[in-house]
Design goal:
Elements (H helix, E strand, L loop, with lengths): L6 H15 L4 E7 L5 H14 L3 E6 L10 H7 L12 H4 L10 H20 L2 E6 L6 H13 L5 E8 L4 H10 L5 E5 L5 H12 L1 H15 L3 H17 L13 H14 L1 H13 L6 H8 L3 H13 L3 E2 L2 E2 L2 H9 L3 H17 L4 H13 L7 H16 L6 H11 L3 H18 L1 H4 L3 H9 L5 H13 L3 H15 L7 H13 L21 H14 L3 H13 L8 H13 L3 H17 L3 H17 L3 H13 L3 H4 L4 H13 L3 H8 L11 H16 L3 H17 L10 H11 L3 H13 L6 H13 L3 H18 L2 H17 L3 H18 L13 H4 L19 H11 L4 H8 L3 H15 L11 H11 L15
Parallel strand pairs: 1-4, 1-5, 2-3, 3-4
Antiparallel strand pairs: 6-7
Helix pairs in contact: 1-2, 5-6, 6-7, 8-9, 8-10, 9-10, 10-11, 11-12, 11-15, 12-14, 12-15, 13-14, 13-16, 16-17, 17-18, 18-19, 19-20, 20-22, 20-23, 22-23, 23-24, 23-25, 25-26, 26-27, 26-28, 27-28, 28-29, 28-30, 29-30, 30-31, 30-33, 31-33, 33-34, 33-35, 35-36, 35-37, 36-37, 37-38, 37-39, 38-39, ...
Length: about 950
């Protein structure tokens, strides 16, 4: 099977044979790279010549026989009459074999051979082929030159194949054979894609040829030996029937690996070693001097070997052609040899000041193969490589580098520093795996090997994983070492205050103002510490909001500022700054996602879910909480799991999905969580679930426990967890309105700042605990506060109760209008498996009493899709496209597309032409939908 690329070469050989038949001796030199098809071409021609009646004499040069005098010549004439092989023995020629020239005795023997050849050629043409002639012994080469000069007028055709590479022992011979005019030169190039396609088509069929030709060419570089090996691998896969050949991928199997090694071994050890060096260095910009040092070779020998590999199609651009070639080379080297080469490569690259990542990759490869990585330079390189990747927000390989650095370090403080960085990196990516480093770091702290910054990081992780006793010890040690130290970093004070704020039991015994000396006045750190203290002391709500916004606006999202961001977000929630918190949280969440920081994304996402729940967007809150919760296992979440779990329980309870809420409450949580603020969120929502399912005593127990903990921790902030509100609602359910009213009055008598949302909920409870004649004005006030706060769910409940009280007071018309507004909110935010996106805060306040006599121009609203209707309602209310985009969580482009369709369907030209009562019509239409209509369809009412 001759490739299409070689058909022209066969034709040239046949022409040379035809010329030879006319009595003109010919010499054909076929040149090419390793395994480029020279042998196959020569054999194909030899078969043709024999079929035409020629006498064939053939031999093959070999590394192993280069020192055997006249070894190749004896191959040619062995067992062929009338040649006498005894005349070619070393004994008969004496010292002629060692002489650089042909003496009289040697010439006599060769003359006899020449006469025999000429006599034979008179009766039949003679074809002499020598494959890999560059490996022939020198006496044979001199003899062939002697014969070639004397056979030029006979019917003898000489065909030599050679490698197109320099060879000092062969170059003199070659300079002689290229002179005669009768010499024909054939330079074999690698197979083209068309040639490879022809081979694949003949072996595997046209369909597979079309699928595999390009990849086969990339793998083989046009080397026929490798191409045929790949064909064999495809056949083997077809025989195994493991993977269908029609899947379009090429199988690289045992035959390809063997062919690669065969190509490398045919030239000798040097090309193989250079290929191994290339495989070790891979993409580190290997040069001839670097390879020479790695392999203990001279650069000129490296360059010669690279030329061999280039012509064989194994190397291109100074690199191994394909990963499969690299794998084949490395698999043929023992693990110990590879490890030694990787270690040496790392040292050489370090000496050349190469990229730390490249050196680290070599050290990691040596470690995987059992090599021993030692030395301060190695540890420093691994750590620097990790830090460089972290600065670029790349996390691939970082944990492996740091783990190896920690295992390779022999100094206590150095190892502790690396372990701390490793813990931080693993916690940011896989928090469930990072806990394994805590014990070693605690021991390092006890031994004094941990820096102050690393101690602060350790304290945060002790809280996260619920090691509260150890956390208390660390905070006490920090306070003792940093008290009164003006040089201590600003982050110190915030970290201590933040940890003590989240976990008050761990901060017991610390001086309240311990952190003040370490914080420079006016800095972001100072504002954050001051913000937390203002929350504790019940300071002015507006000042806390201003401080939180300054903190969020003054520090980008980074590892060293995440505490600032989270504390400021929660501070806004603690004082009912939900609307501002939502806007800032969205930006932070986007930033966390773009930085590929899963823990940041999870924490900020959980807080965002909490914000959405407090604004009544139960569907959005449930989705966000579920997403955040699902990023890690329960062990990975640690004590912080209280937030996403609490939000999921809250949304399920408010939506009436009690089985779902119950299942969530049965998930295991760490006991340490109940010693943190995360536990307060969980307890409060569990109490509301018990209350909703009429387990009032269990509910009261949870609300009471919340109150006890918050008072004990001096953190009785009702906007954090309104335990009095839950207790008051429970007392109402138990028939104790006086106790419920007392709890509300106790709350209003306190000094802690209360925002409109919390105040509105308390006023609603107060109305339920008051005489009937006082309820309507109280509920009106509750509706006003809740509408201003943006909590649509609580607002809907207050509206329903106000409607009932108005009905009881004889105000039937207003009761219907208020009830309709409550129904509308229920449809947007009410119970069910899914909810539409929220309307902006204040929308209900803009809508007046329902007008059931709508103009005829509004009946076309029924042609709008649900998405178009939502956009149209908000546009009619005056919101900009960007505001609509933010409210509905769609792109500005999508808003514009929806509005274009709305204008066309309603026959208007701009948003100012949209009917101002479009939002009212949407509610009327929902109420008028036919029960028989498919779910989600809407149709206009008739007049």
């Amino acid at each position: 099977m001759i490739p299409v690329d070689r058909e022209h070469d066969v034709h040239i050989l046949c022409e040379a044979y035809t010329t030879c038949l006319k009595g003109w001796g010919q010499l054909v030199v076929v040149s090419g790279g390793v395994a480029c098809g020279k042998t196959e071409l020569t054999r194909a021609f030899a078969r043709y010549a024999v079929d035409e009646g020629a006498v064939l004499l053939s031999a093959t040069g070999s590394h192993a026989e280069q020192t055997l005098p006249f070894g190749l010549l004896r191959q040619l004439f062995h067992g062929v009459e009338p040649f006498r092989m005894t005349d070619l023995s070393a004994d008969s020629l004496g010292s002629a074999a060692e002489s650089p020239t042909i003496d009289r005795d040697c010439a006599g023997v060769l003359d006899e051979l020449c006469e025999d050849l000429i006599r034979l050629a008179r009766s039949r043409p003679v074809v002499i082929t020598v494959d890999d002639i560059q490996f022939a012994d020198k006496p044979s080469l001199r003899a062939l030159l002697y014969l070639e000069r004397r056979l030029r007028t006979s019917r003898v055709l000489l065909v030599f194949t050679e490698w197109t590479l320099p060879n000092p022992g062969y170059d003199l011979f070659r300079s002689e054979i290229v002179r005669p005019l009768q010499t024909v030169h054939l330079q074999l190039a690698p197979l083209s894609k068309a040639g490879i396609g022809r081979l694949l088509e003949e072996a595997l069929g046209p369909e597979m040829a079309e699928l595999l030709t390009a990849e086969c060419h990339a793998l083989s570089g046009g080397n026929p030996l490798l191409v045929r090996a790949l064909i064999d691998d495809q056949r083997a896969r077809r025989h195994r029937a493991a993977i269908p050949l029609t899947d379009g991928t090429i199988a690289v199997g045992q035959q390809f690996t063997r062919a690669v090694i065969a190509c490398l071994r045919r030239w000798g050890r040097t090309p193989f070693d250079v290929a191994c060096g290339l495989a070790i260095l891979e993409d580190t910009g290997s040069s001839d001097p670097l390879l020479g040092e790695l392999l203990d070779m001279e650069p000129v020998d490296v360059r010669r070997a690279l030329d061999v590999l280039e012509t064989a199609g194994l190397v291109t651009g100074g690199q191994l052609r394909h990963p499969a070639v690299r794998t084949a080379v490395l698999d043929s080297v023992s693990p110990a040899e590879r490890a030694a080469l990787h270690l040496k490569a790392a040292e050489l690259l370090h000496g050349r000041e190469a990229r730390c990542a490249d050196i680290a990759a070599q050290l990691m490869a040596a470690d995987r193969l059992g090599g021993t990585v030692r030395g301060r330079w190695a540890v420093d390189t691994l750590r620097q490589a990790a830090q460089d990747h972290l600065l670029s927000h790349r996390f691939d390989a970082v944990t492996g580098w740091l783990d190896l650095a920690a295992r390779s370090s022999t100094e206590g403080s150095e190892r502790a520093e690396v372990l701390s960085l490793l813990l931080r990196v693993e916690w940011a990516r896989r928090p469930s795996a990072a806990a394994r480093h805590l014990a070693a770091l605690e021991a390092a702290r006890a031994d004094g090997d941990l820096s102050q910054d690393d101690v602060l990081y350790l304290a945060k992780y002790l809280l996260w994983y619920g090691h509260l006793d150890e956390l208390g010890e660390v905070l006490t040690a920090i306070a003792a070492s940093a008290s009164g130290d003006p040089a201590a970093p600003g982050s110190l004070g915030l970290t201590v205050e933040w940890l003590r704020f989240l976990c008050p039991p761990a901060g017991q015994g610390l001086t309240r103002h311990m952190a003040a000396p370490q914080v420079v006045s006016g800095t972001t750190w100072a504002r954050a510490v001051d913000m937390l203290e203002r929350i504790r002391s019940g300071d002015c709500r507006e000042k806390i909001i201003a401080a939180a916004e300054q903190v969020l606006g003054g520090s980008p999202l980074r590892e060293e500022t995440i505490d600032l961001q989270l504390s400021a977000l929660l501070a806004l929630l603690y004082v009912d700054g939900d609307q501002r918190a939502e806007e800032l949280c969205q930006a932070l969440l986007t930033d966390a996602i773009s930085q590929h920081a899963p823990v940041w994304r999870a924490m900020i996402g959980a807080i965002y879910a909490l914000i959405l729940a407090r604004r009544g967007d139960l569907g959005g809150a449930a989705r966000q909480a579920k997403t955040a919760h699902g990023l890690f296992t329960a062990q990975g979440w640690g004590v912080a799991i209280g937030i996403p779990l609490a939000v999921q329980v809250a949304t399920a309870t408010r939506a009436g999905r009690y089985d779902e809420a119950s299942a969530l409450l049965h998930l295991p949580v760490p006991d340490a969580m109940f010693q943190t603020q995360f536990g307060l969120f969980y307890l409060y929502e569990r109490g509301l679930f018990y209350l909703a399912t009429n387990r009032v005593h269990s509910a009261m127990a949870d609300f009471t426990r919340c109150g006890e903990l918050m008072r004990r921790w001096e953190l009785d902030v009702q906007t954090l967890v309104p335990w009095r509100l839950g207790a008051a609602r429970t007392h109402l359910a138990m028939g104790n309105p006086h106790t419920a009213r007392a709890l509300v009055e106790e709350q209003f008598a306190g000094s802690a700042p209360i925002g409109p949302r919390t105040r509105g909920m308390f006023v609603r409870v107060l109305a339920a605990a008051s005489p009937p004649e006082e309820r309507v004005p109280l509920l009106r006030k509750s509706v006003e506060l809740l509408d201003a706060s943006g909590d649509q769910f609580e607002l809907a409940g207050a509206l329903r109760e106000l409607s009932q009280e108005l009905e009881a007071a004889g105000e039937a018309a207003e009761a219907r209008d208020v009830g309709a507004r409550a129904t509308r909110l229920d449809r947007w935010y009410g119970s069910g498996p899914s909810f539409p996106d929220p309307l902006p805060a204040g929308t209900l306040a803009l809508a007046g009493p329902m007008d059931h006599h709508l103009p005829s121009s509004l009946w076309k609203v029924g042609e709008l899709s649900e998405a178009e209707r939502r956009v149209a309602v908000l546009a009619a209310l005056g919101l900009t496209n960007r505001e609509i985009s933010a409210k509905l969580y769609i792109t500005v482009s999508t808003v514009e597309q929806h509005l274009t369709r709305v204008y066309r369907k309603l026959n208007v030209n701009r948003r100012t032409d949209l009917p101002t009562d479009l939002d009212q019509y949407a509610t009327v239409e929902l109420a008028a939908a036919s029960p028989a209509s498919p779910r989600g369809t809407r149709r206009p009412r008739g007049r």
